[in-house]
TrEMBL record:
Record keyword Cell membrane present: no
Taxonomic lineage of the native organism: Bacteria, Pseudomonadati, Pseudomonadota, Alphaproteobacteria, Acetobacterales
Biased composition annotated in UniProt, kind: Pro residues: 8-17
Organism expressing this protein natively: Teichococcus rhizosphaerae
PANTHER family, per database record: SUCCINATE--HYDROXYMETHYLGLUTARATE COA-TRANSFERASE (PTHR48207)
Keywords of this entry: Transferase
Alphabetized GO MF terms: CoA-transferase activity
Highest rank taxon of the organism: Bacteria
Database matches in Pfam families: CoA_transf_3
Entry-linked InterPro entries: CoA-transferase_III_domain, CoA-Trfase_fam_III, CoA-Trfase_III_dom3_sf, CoA-Trfase_III_dom_1_sf
Protein name in the entry: Carnitine dehydratase
Length: 411
């Protein structure tokens, strides 16, 4: 934990977001029927941009409330996953709570769900039912394989999106057959689907509102596999035209050299991108190999790619003699793009992250001082800290507020 002084305590019950907050989605009302990662990540992004997000949880809560290390008896992950959201509890199989959900939908702009395809229809809350209550409601449906197609009913988690979307094939090390290609370390396909869902929700709301009073809500179909597939650059047209299948390249980039990650004397790694002509010359000078910069074989990127192994060996021989931070300082002094491979401690303590409030210390009423990442976008006139209006709330903390203000109930 940082030694920085914590901010003043966040209120347990947040104050309503007003249009004067400076956040672009202030006034947008969103319901979340999500669990685990993909759907809740989409609504977290919308909430960070000012939307009023109501997270509808079952009486036992979102399972992700139980994830992560504990502080004061509460697992810490939900502090981020639930931030800026209002938590209410509803049993969607209970007729009274189902009616409440429909009333909430009647006053919402959008709804995000990530159940298995067909689940909402089976419990009587499919899109046709929801939009009968509110024809302007935008509904984003996030699933493993999509709402149609021969695989729609198959179960899927994030790892399956990586595997079928093509990413896991590329994370292998060339020639490595004894160990499986590793995952990237986070639930990247869930996060990608969440980002795409947030983008699609905002787009659909803009299109609906631009159409005026007659604008209707759209139904959005987002899935984990297609979200990963969308990142596969030019691989699909390349295969279609030539039959070429891109193979794993490890830490290198086949089309640019020298670009790789090199071992250092302290056991850490240094990522170096020296693939432009001018940067390459500066890099070779810094590592004491200026003759390679004068070698006609290395005169352009194509030549350097053809001799990437020789260049990597030269750079690696130099980095092995130095701690990663010292090697980075030497290369940065001559304007060569590079970075140590940061772990989470490096991130938490880095002065750049701290100066920009990309890493900030907040006070969570449930767990005490906690580090949060800032939202990945900045809006002029709004400080990063001001975008985190509150941390993940207690289960059902806002039942009275939401059912009172949205539904007019006396609770």
């Amino acid at each position: 934990m940082s030694t920085a002084q914590p901010t003043s305590p966040q209120p347990t019950s947040p104050q309503p977001t007003s249009p004067q907050s400076g956040l672009p989605l202030a006034g947008l009302r969103v319901l979340e029927l999500g669990h685990y990662i993909a759907g809740p990540f989409a609504t977290r992004l919308l909430a960070d941009m000012g939307a009023e997000v109501v997270k509808v949880e079952p009486p036992e809560g979102d399972p992700i409330r139980g994830w992560g290390s504990k502080a004061q008896g509460h697992p810490v992950w939900f502090s981020i996953h639930g931030r800026n959201k209002l938590s209410v509890t509803l049993d969607l199989k209970n007729p009274r709570d189902k009616a409440r959900l429909l009333k909430l939908a009647a006053g919402a702009d959008a709804l995000v769900e990530n159940f298995r395809p067909g689940y909402l229809e089976r419990i009587g809350l499919g899109p046709e039912v929801l939009q009968a209550e509110n024809p302007r409601l935008v509904i984003a449906r996030v699933s493993g394989y999509g709402q149609d197609g021969p695989y729609r009913d198959k179960p899927a988690f994030g790892a399956i999106g990586e595997a079928m979307g093509g990413l896991r094939h590329l994370t292998a090390n060339p020639g490595q057959t004894e160990l499986p290609p590793p995952r990237c370390g986070i639930s990247i396909s869930d996060d990608l689907a969440g980002m795409y869902a947030a983008m699609a929700v905002v787009s659909a709301c803009w299109g609906r509102d631009r159409a005026g009073e007659g604008g209707r809500g759209r139904i959005i179909d987002i899935n984990l596999v297609d979200s990963v597939l969308s990142l596969m650059e030019g691989m699909l047209p390349e295969y279609g035209l030539t039959g070429k299948i891109r193979q794993p390249a490890g830490a290198a980039i086949p089309t640019a050299a020298p670009t790789n990650t090199y071992p250092c004397a302290d056991g850490k790694w240094l990522c170096v991108a020296g693939n432009s002509d001018l940067i390459f010359r500066r890099l070779m000078g810094a590592i004491g190999r200026p003759e390679l910069a004068e070698d006609p074989r290395m005169a352009d990127n194509g030549g350097r790619c053809a001799h990437a192994a020789e260049l990597d060996a030269a750079i690696g021989a130099w980095t092995r003699t130095l701690p990663a931070k010292e090697a980075q300082d030497i290369l940065e002094a001559v304007d060569v793009p590079c970075s140590r491979l940061y772990d989470i401690r490096d991130i938490a303590e880095d002065p750049h992250f701290r100066a920009r409030d990309s890493v900030m210390e907040l006070r969570d009423p449930l767990i005490g001082p906690v580090l949060h990442p800032a939202a990945p976008f900045r809006f002029d006139g709004v400080a990063p800290r001001d975008m985190v209006r509150w941390t993940g709330p207690a289960l059902g903390e806002h039942n009275a507020r939401v059912f009172g203000q949205w539904l007019g109930e006396e609770v």
